[in-house]
Amino acid sequence: MFISAVFYTTTACLLKYLYLNSAINTYEFTYWSSIVIGILNLVMFKLYHRDHMLVRDDMRSTLVLRSITAFLGSTGFYLALQYTDLSKATALYWTNPMMTAVIAYLVLNESLSFIDWIAILVSFGGILVIQNPWSKGINLNASYEDNFGSLAAIAGAVFYAISQM
Question: Torsions phi, psi of 52, nearest 5?
């Protein structure tokens, strides 16, 4: 987990640096990263001698839904990195465990304990603290971009949570 966290953090920092110092946009990055991930997946299937087209009939629609929602989740995070601070985008995006719990409760009728609900409320309070909707914005353009980035991060977290169910 530590190695994964280090690589994820490094990727986010490099992507933010790329956005600041080049003309590349989120959609270009998402396009190329999807192609690279697809090629890596095919290589892994070949290494383990698996047929990548063998998916049970009852799992195909679920797999397509998970793929689309995971794509939208990562795109939301990449948009957030482009339009808001790295720390804010990361903190808002990683509320997806809270989103997963709430969506699982609503859609799958999973049970949540009292402690789970307290943790969800504290997480939601953390979102409010990070977003700080009570502050007075001076620069409306910066505020618009920051709000768009925050909404993209939260939408990305919701879509990623759906893809994990």
Answer: -70, -10
